[in-house]
Structure formats: structure tokens, C-alpha cells
Fold these 2 entries.
Entry 1:
Amino acid sequence: MALSDQELKEIAYLARISVKEESLPSLKKELEDILDLFKQLDEANTTEVNAMSHPLDLSQPTRKDEVTEEDLRDELLKNAPSVKSGLFLVPKVIDGEN
Amino acid sequence: MKNYSEDWEAVIGLEIHVQLSTKSKLFSGASTDFGALPNTQACNIDLAMPGVLPVLNEEVLKMAVKLGKALNAEINSPTSFARKNYFYPDSPKGYQISQMDKPIVENGYLDIETENGGKRIGITRAHLEEDAGKSLHDDFEGQSGIDLNRAGTPLLEIVSEPEINTPKEAVAYLKSIHSIIRYLEISDGNMAEGSMRCDANVSVRKIGEEKLGTRTETKNVNSFRFVEKAIQYEIERQIHEIESGNKITQETRLYDSQVNTTRPMRSKEFANDYRYFPEPDLLPVNLEKEFIEEVLATMPEMPTEKKERFVSEFSLSQYDADLLAADKDIAEFFEEVTKISNSPKLSANWIMGELSAELNNENLNIKESKVSSNKLGQLISRIEDGTISGKIAKDIFEKIWTTGKEVDDIIKEEGLEQVTDDKEIELMIDEVIENNPQQLEQYRSGKDRLFGFFVGQVMKASQGKANPKQVNDILKSKLEK
Amino acid sequence: MDLHKLSLSKQLEGLQKGDFTSTELTSQYLNRISELDGQLNSFITVTEDQALSQAKAADDRYKKNNNFSLDGLPIAHKDIFCTKGVLTTCGSKMLSNFEAPYSSTVYDKLDKKGMVMLGKTNMDEFAMGSSNETSYFGPVKNPWNIEYVPGGSSGGSASCVSAELAPIATATDTGGSIRQPASLCGLTGIKPTYGRVSRYGMIAFASSLDQGGVIAKSAEDAALILEAMSGHDPKDSTSLKLDQPDLTNNLNNPIKGMKIGLPKEFFEKEMAPYVLKSIEEAIEVYKSLGAEIVEISLGNINLSLPIYYIIAPAECSANLSRYDGVRYGYRCEDPKDIEDLFMRTREEGFGAEVKRRILIGTYALSAGYYDAFYLKAQKCRQLVANDFIEAFKSVDVILSPTTPGTSFKSGEKTNDPVEMYLQDIFTIPANLAGLPGLSIPCGEHNGLPLGMQLVGNSLEESKLLQFAHSFQSNTDWHMKMPNI
């Protein structure tokens, strides 16, 4: 199954993984090999089959609406690459950019 | 009202995000209180630490079931969660847990009042999802600070059918949703604090055209007034573009209330693709019949029901009933006042008149009113039993508002009881007639409208305390002599 | 005394009787680690100080006669389990500096029973790999021959138990990551029914397939610890609402009259003669113990590999989105804007195999391909699960090789992802169906061990361990240890 450079770039962008121009050809080949594997599924007849999202056929449990977590900010922020005044710092976000 | 050409029509659909007023988050036990120090209410689950898993808050299911009922909708069981994938620094997991195929609420409708009478707006769905955190931009040397306190707060997103045609209808629909969520006590609906947010999908087409025009989505509209203005702007912009020979681009736009315009958000290199798929960390939720019945048993009287009851039980006009029933707190205040005053009509007038003016003046909501429902009820009952006149009542109202004193104490202390003794009123009238011979002559020679002058003089002489009805009756008979 | 030669239950007995202390036992393992792990690289972190203080605490409890059920027994944890205050890397540069602020349920459960953590074992990055060559912390070596791979992704756990640097180790299995390294290192590895062991604090690869378990020297050892790890956890919505199962009391029951299914689809495949020979010999052992051998058909089993390589990457593409350089973990230098922060952090922080799978998963979920790939795979997954349901109507366990062969040389398959994926061809189906599976040693070839796999019906770990134990009571493949 053939992937175009453009498709590969779009996927990489969706996954937010930058791919260097020079590694495009080899990566494309690897992905195409894996995609070829998927063709085996074409032979399976699944018209009458439900999609299986979980190995368990159970209902979701719930918890009571109670505050059980205390403030552990200092501990939780210890691993952060950049912090100021209790906030995680990142390069400037333009509002509503998303 | 329309500023644009009459042969255009707008097609509007609203997506309303309602923040649910649970104690803890949708999938974690962290608090949802508003206004805490940054990241003090973000636990390891909210921060998407490696290895954490979501556990569903039971309360949100109850809230969604109630909303579904209020929107005349179906409740899906099983209902299931899905991951919506996108990268943003305030979205800690890189996906939002939301619902796709089986939203908890589906296929409902809401009847709204418009200038042209009632209209039914279809509700496509309402689904549960998590809120994102916030990005702050001040004082970080050109960087942004991420606060994840809000991350994981439960939201219900209510999606309407594109069946709204004017900005006014959009506001009526939005207000109706606001009223419902407040009645159900599932959200405080505070638009300024962001607990209710509205995105508007707007397109325009020539009247008679079947095909929908290209739509834009306007985000960031945080008051009823702005919703109306933003949609109005967007409709006019789109018509202008098309009439100038341009095409509308499908895009997301931001409303800027400062200058009352919408502008496109910066577009990215590639189109977004949310890649929804079933959330493998959560199983489908079965809502047992008994569970739904138990929840529905706790449904309060809803705005429409209340309104109808106000008309039938209290003989209020449709208009008054509608105004009072729209807000749960006002409706409750009205019922408390009426219970004491025994006069629904007068109670309604006072609440919508004096009280509401005073509240607006000081920018208070009815729960913060300085005249309690109890005192207003007593005040009105004193008008009803003839102790005081309506005019005096207004002065007393002012006094209660500023001093908080009891109605009867003020009447007693200031000697404000109404004068209802016929003899006393007669004396006052006689004196007024005697002092104004010229006017009397003119009146008797046919200048009827001088009657009001005499009433005014008598009321003035009584310092407003004379019973107006008696003054009218006695004055009439004296002047006719 | 060579305490590391004792089985886990003998070690527990020794501790309880006071024959030796946990400090002695723990020190012996720590000494072996410092002496031998230089060659193997099976640990990412050795928690020596913590281990010694945990051991001392256990010894104190024994002295006071208020010891816990597994008090003082050492264990190594796969570095996928969060352990509070200890580096938890998942074998990735992305988490190379990450000290978990909380502990996984698995760690907590074993900690509460008094187990002593020796350290965190090396693994394929984010559990993606079958040779333990994708770890940011370098490849792990097979103690049987250090030119060969130990298997993966739980390669560190297998390698350290095989070299007796730990008596037992936790591990995880998404498509064979417990059973395949157990097979390649001559050990017993069990992956229980999906939902038996809490996934809370176990760093996610593919949520609907991941399951924790153990790699041990025998079925008896495995039963003891798997039992202690299991049980309902309200923090994991996919955790089964069942109490801790009793996995040890059934071990010695005879398997006479029970039925072993041999899936014809597996045996129709071209199989290395030495593999077939070992499996046939194992079947003879079972026959001699009175088990009945039945040929069965799992008609859709050959779809397993493509199903797995759609579903696992799809789930992983979302599960690994949280590694964005904002809240913890690796962040690229001087990001020029927010997109650059994401793109470069993830490009630099993830290794090639992880990125490959994220891209495949992103593709399989993207608009236009969702139905053809992801949805199709989910439907086919149901077909595979149905085959098992049908098969277990007539058999107690299903037997096959665990792997297509013995271990292979380091670097041999690293340039061909698909060739590497074939390593898991026998193990993946159990993950798709959420069924328990184990691997036990049953032969060797050119000085390298080989395993066979037993897959059981849902919740029948006890029966699987019974089959494994009865085999081990009548053979000594599991007693063979590498010379290192």
C-alpha cells in the first residue's frame, strides 16, 4: 500500500512528530510494509459482526461525587521542565489557536 | 430589525457547553471549586501522569439524565465514551474524553418564544466531556503559564439542530437552556465565569434555497448580549461577502466584544482530524431502568410547567408568568411573596417593577435582595388590607431596602397608616375646595381634567396617606354638588 | 548458602523459620546484580538503599512475629510500573528523568505484603518490541548467550530472573511481552485474564490489551506472586470485580482426563523441526499424565497479527500523546513556539519503533481510514474471540509453541519491523481475546531454551498453573539455568 509524502507529513503533523526530509523515504517504506500486513483483513467477512472495543463485556463502574484528592501541587510539579508561580510554562500560546 | 437585505435567511445552530456543578471532577476526585490557586486542584489524573486511569463520577450521569428529560430527549443506554485527539498545552492527555457514537442524550427538542410566537428547536444531542485547563499570558516573559485546575471538570455539550434563524431566536433558545440548567441545579450557568459557553454555527442562504450555505463557527461568546451581536455581525459579514462576489470559507472565528466583530482563528498547516475512537480505559455505561426512574423522581417543576401553573393558579398574564418563571430564583421568590401577600398580581408587579429596578441599580441578583420575600409579602399585604397606600408603600420599600427594618415598625414609627375615615377625608376635601375657588368654577363649567388637580391637592394635604379610592369617590360627589 | 538457588516458596519458608534474614537474602541478590548485570543490562535502576531498608523492616517484623504474608521476599519490577519517588522510565528517553509521584496498584499490593524491591528492570521502550533492543537504556542480553536477545518487551525482567539476579519479576504483556521473553530465557511467564491485575500506575501502551503478570522460575513461584498482585481495584474501571483468586491450592491436582486443544491452524504453519519436536515431546508428557489431546480449529487466528498491529498502535497513538514536554519528562531545547515544543520533544524523546507505531496508529484512526482499518480490526477481533469461546466448549487449555523458535542474535531483526512482529504470532491471540496465557520451558536448541504456551479460558489462571505445575513436576526443563 503506497503512502504519499504529503500523507506521511500530515500523519506526522497530527501525531506531532517532526520527520526530517531525509528520513521520509525509509520511514515510508517501513510504514508501507506494515500497511501491507493489514490487507490480510480484507478476506474476513465481518458483515454480521459487532466491533469489539473491550475484552470485557461489563458495564462501567462509577464513583461517588466526592473530593478525595488533596492538593499535592509541589510534589506533582517536581517533574515539570519549566514552572513559575505554580504554573507550567510553555512558549506563548495564542488564544483560541486550537 | 434586519439590517440586511430581506431575501436572505440565516441558518444557525448552537453548541452550548454547560459546566456541571459537581463537587469533584468527571474522572478524578479533585475539587472543581472555582478560583483556587493554579494547579492546586489538579491531581495526577488531571495532569495525565503516566499510568493514571479515569473513573466515572456517578453524579454526572444523574445530571445528564435530568437534562435529557427536560429536553424531551432519549437517554441512550449503553452510552459510551470516546477519545477526541488533539494537541494543546491545556489538554494534558493530548485527547479529550468525550462521547461520539452513543451520546447520553439524543433527539430532543425545546419550545421557545419568539417575536412571531412559539417555535420548536430540535436538539441533536447532549454529550458528556471533560473541560480543558487554562492558558495564562501575563508576566511570564513572553511565555504562557498553564493552569490545569479546570482540566477534567465535567461538561455537557448541548448541540441544537440548525433550526434557529435569527439572532433573537438564538438568544431565546440560549436563555431557555440557561433557565433549564438552573432549574435542574446541574450548573450555575454563569456565562461570565465560563460555566456556560456558547459556540454558534452560522450560514446564510437566499430565501427559498434548499442547500445550506458554507458555515462558520464563532467561538468565545460569553454573554447573552454578545451571542446576539456576534451572530448578527456574522450574518451581515457573510451576506456582504457573498454579495461582493466572494466565497465563505468554512472556518472557526473568534468574537471580539470590544470591537463587535468576528475574526478567523489562525489556520494551521493541515486540517484537524480528531480521530475519535472508543475510550479503552472506560467501559460502556449501562443506565439501569431503576436508576433512571430514581433520578427522574427527583425532577423539579420545570420553567414551562411553572409558567402554566402561574397562569392557571394565580391568573397571571402569559407575559408576566413567562418573565417570572424564566429564572428559578425569581420564581421561588415570587411564590414566597405571594404566599404571604395573597395577591399574586400585585406581587408580580412589585417584583418586576420596584424590586427588579433596585436590584439592577445595585447589580444584585434576587438572592442578594435587601428586601426579603417575607418583608415584600408583608408590605403588599398592608396595601391589600388598606393600611397603607401604594404610594406610601414605595417609600416604605425604600426604607426597608436601606435599613432592613420591619414593615409594621416603619408604618408605626412614621405614622404612615392610610387615612380611611370618611369624615377625616371629607374635612380635607372641604378645605381644598375652599382654597381653590377659581379651579372649582372652571371644573364646574366643564373642565373635567381639573379633577386630577383636586385629587393631587387632597393627597398632598394628607401627605399621601388618604385612601385614593375614597378620595376619588368623596371628591366626585362634593364637586358635583 | 546460595539462597538464590532456592524457589520462592522455599525462600519464604526460610524467612519464616528464621533460617536466614531478608537482609541476607536481599544482599545476596544485590551482590549478584552488581557483579553480573554489567554484562546483561537487565536493570535500569537498582534501588539498593531502599531494598536494604525494606529488608530490615521485614526482618524486624519477623522478630516481632507480626510479619506480612510475603514479607522480605525480593522482587524486581518492570520499569513500566510507577513507583513513588523512584525513577520510572518505561525504557524511554521521554521519561528518563521521571520520578513517579505515586505508586502503581501492583507495587502497592506487593509492598503491603512486605516484598522488597530490588530495582526496576529494563524493557523495550514503552513496551514496544520483541527483543529488548528499543530501550533508551541500551539492549538487554540473554543470560544463556549474551550475543542473543532475551525477548521483549519484558526483556529485563526475564534476563534478571534467568540469571538469578532476582527470584521473580513483574512484567506486562500486550501481545506476548511476558510469554515471549519467558520462552527465550527458559522461564515461566504468565499473563492473566484481562482485568485480573490492576492497570493503575502501569504505564499504558495499548489499554485494551495490556495486562500485568510475572516472570518466574516455576509455575509454583508464579502462582504465589500473581495471586498477590490480583484483585479488584476501584481505580481501574476495567478491573474485574473479583477478589484475589486462590492460585496455589489447585497446583497439585491431577490433570488426568482433562483436555488439551491443539489448534490445527498453528500446526499447519511451517514450523522449525526442533520446535515441533519439543512440542510433541511435551504433548507426550501430558498424555502420560492422562490428559486427552484434541485437535481444534481457530478459524480466524491468522488474522491476529494484522488486527494487533492496527489496534495496539491506534490505542498507543493516543496513550502516548501526553508526552508533550509540558508537565513532566523530556523537553527539547529552546522551543521556538508551542508547535515546535510538541514536534521536537516527541521527535527527540521517542525512539524509532515507538514513533513508527504512533504514526501507524494515527494513520489507522484518521478520517477515511478508520472504517477500513480500525473498525475492521475491531470486528475481526470479535471473530478471534468467538473462535476461542467455541474452542473452550470442548477443551480445558490450548497448547502451542510460544515463539516460532529460540532466541535470535542481537541486531538480526532490527531492520525489518514486520519480521520482528512475527515473533508474537502465537501469543497475540490471547491478548485480543483477553484470555490468560502462560509460557513454560519445554526444550532447547543449540544451548538456547524454548517454551510452550498454554492459553486458558477466561478467569482460569488456576487451571493453567495446574497444567504448568504438573508438567514441571514431571520434567526438569524449568530447572535448567544458564551458566553466567
Note: The longest strand of chain A covers residues 87-91.
Entry 2:
Amino acid sequence: MTGKFDVNVLFNHWDRFLEGFIHTVESSIIALIGSFILGTIIAVMRISPYKPLNWIGTVYVEFIRNIPVLLVTFFFFLGLPSLGIPIGGFTAGTLGLMVYTASFIAECVRAGIQSVPFGQTEAARATGLTYMQTMLHVVLPQSIKIVLPSIGNQFINLVKNSSILAVVAGLDLMYYADLINADTFLPLTVYTFVALFYLVLTIPLSIGVHYMERRFSSTDR
Amino acid sequence: MNKRSRLGAFLVLLVVCLVFAGCGSKKESAEKGGTLEAIKARGKVIAGVKYDTKLFGLKDPATGKVEGFDIDIAKALAKKILGDENKVELKEVTSKTRIPLLQNGDIDLIVATMTVTEERKQQVDFSDIYFKAGQSLLVKKGSPIQGLQDLKGVKVLTVKGSTSAKNIREKAPDANVLEFENYQDAFTALKAGQGEVLTTDNAILLGMQQQDPNYVLVGGNFTDEPYGIAIKKGDAEFVKEVNDLLKEMKSSGEYDKLYEQWMGVKPE
């Protein structure tokens, strides 16, 4: 019975599949933008010549990158409300996802920044630009091009990791899949459709990564 | 069919025959007279109990002892029939195995959080109700929520795919039901303030209430799944014996004492 494949499950439970899918997309987009900005800030801090900033950046990356995303999410889901900050499962899951992914993006961006020849920084500083101006106008624009493919890979991971929302009742695709499975007892069908929903999001990202890889490798230098 | 597979088939047949022969002989011995005579002749009560259920029948991994409300009722029965509460042998049963074990005569009775249902009454006889089980609500002490009527727009936590989730959606359609992986996760979320109410069987909620007395059950049961003691079908004599025991325990106050000892609250 559990091995039976029944296409009607998709139509009978379309509302819940769709609601879950929309929440997954929302959470992914918010976390994607947030982690990109946060990750870039952390990367700049990490290679900053100012020791305290450098130290904060390094601690952030080494701490967050080396613990499970579930744990980061539980911190927001269980920790913040007990400190008097009421956030629900969706927000907690999205924050967890963002903070976690930012640590990986920070490492990608740092590698990108460091691949821009140091002479560029020296030249920019010599013209009178501050460290921040040098980063914003000279180094980052060049390095982003280099690191876009690897950041794209992190975004693919982010979309897949968004399934942790299911554990904190974040109403995402995986959460509703668990409920539909409990109602229908057709796990093979339910989770196959869930896989397809995730592929709808991740395959375009994957194609984008390939495109960027080809484009930047042919036009650069 | 080649020789090897034929031999295999023969062996399987042989094993099946032996197993059935074993079952048959057991059945015979148990059917001689009623369960009550069998217990008296044997000098002990064999009770099928749960080993994994908090408050009712739980094996303590440190001491290896099985303890709980169900166990104490089995002991009381041994005391009534044989005059010694220690003359009881506990056998672990699960919801799946308990009826076959009773029908085989491996156990004299089932005291294992068993809900009385019409379907089960076709297979076994039940004693009077000894625990009013049903779905209830757990809230933080002092919460304004006192029952199903207060759940409009309230976050109610329960477990994914459980009957409790279905029941609460039916009984309180305006509640915002959030489902978690298991009861411990749901209770942790309740404690973290991710919801105002946790709903499931009162037996599980009573266990949580003992774990953290800041949380209390409210509103009574809104489903009816009472526990009874199951006895082999047709053994009216033994059913009466068990019912007499429950009556005696209730009038002597022993039932209330045991209930309070295990559930942490007085019976309703």
C-alpha cells in the first residue's frame, strides 16, 4: 500500500502542496537576500585590517559554519521566545537559514576578495579612497563576478535546507508533505511530488550557476 | 520446481505445523475451567502490561522493575485472589500483541492502557472502566484558556498525523493547529511559548504535567476512550472477579490513592 503511486494525491491535496510551496519560496527568497547581504558584511569584516572586526567575522564564520542548521534554527525557535522575543516557526526557520547560509557565503566572498590582486587595493587607497570605499567601488564589484557561481551553489543548498522549517511548524512544503502523508499513507507518492516541487526551484538555480561559470570564465582576462 | 525448493517448501510446512501444534496445546490447557481456577492452580496471576508507557506501565532501565498504575491494579488482583500482591507475573504486551496473547492463554488478563471499543468487544470481554482516558488540553498555569470554547485563533500544538490533530481540527475549527515531530518536541515548543495549548490523550498530558507542574490540564476530556481490563471472551466469572476488585478498591479508597500516586491528581 505504501508503495502504491497515486497521482490523485497531488490534485486532492493541491491546496496544501501549494501553500507549502509558496512558504518555501518566500522563506528561500528572504533568506537568500538576507544571507547575501549578511555574508558580504561578514566577509569584509573578516579580512578587515581592524582587529576587533576581523575577530568578530572569524568567530561568526567558524562558529556558525560548524554547527548544524537545525541547531541554529532551534536557537531562534526556542531560545528567542524564552528571552521574551516572540517569533513563530516560519520566522525562526527563515532566520536560522539566513544566519547559517551567511557563514558559507562569507567564505565564498572572502575568497573572491582575496583573488583580486592586492595592487588594486593599494592603488585605490593611494587615490584617497577609504577602506570602505575601496571595498564597495573597487574590490567587491570585481570579486562578485568571480564568486557568483559558488554563491549560486550556496543558494541551491539554501533552498534544500529550507526543509528545516518542517521541524518548527514553519508551514513549508516539507511540513505539509508530512501532514499529507499522515492522511494518505502514500509516502512514495507524496515525497516524490515534494521532490519535484523542490526541483522546480533548484534546477533553474543550477542552470544559472552553469551559465555564470561559462560566461565569466570566457570573458575574464 | 527443483529439488532444493521442494525441500525448502517441506521445511516451511513442517515449521508451520509445529508452531500450530504448539498453539493448540496451550489453548487446551487454558480452556480447562475458567481463568480464575487456572490462576489458583498455578498460584500466580499472569498479567499482560505495557513496558513503555509512562504512568501506566514503564520499565525503569536502572532497576529493571516495571512500575505504573496498570501494574498496581494487577498486583491488587493477585492480592485479592491469592492473598499476596507479589504473586503476579508481568508479561510485556504491545497494542498489536495483547489480544492474540490473551486468546492463546499466555496471559490471564490485559491491563495495558486498552481502550474499550465495540470492535474489540467482539474479541475479548472488558471489565468496568478503570481509567477515563480521552483527549484533553494542557496549558500554562493561570492561562485564560479553560476549554475548547476558548481556542479561537489560539495556537494549539500537537503531533504530526496523530488522531489528536484530526480531533482538534474537528472540535475547534477556529484554532490554529501546529504539528510537531513528537510529543517531546511539542512540549518543548509549548514551554518556549510557541503556542498556548498542547492537546493529546490525557494520559500523556498527565505525564507532562508531572514533569513540569507549571502546566496543567484544563477542560476535562473532549473525546471518550476509556480504559478497561480485557479478559478472555466468555469468562463471565473472571470478569465479575475483576469488577468486584475495582468496586472494592473504589469503596476502600485504594483506587483513589493509587490514582493520585500515579497521575498526580485526584480522579474526577
Note: Chain A touches chain B through 17 residues (CB under 8 Å).
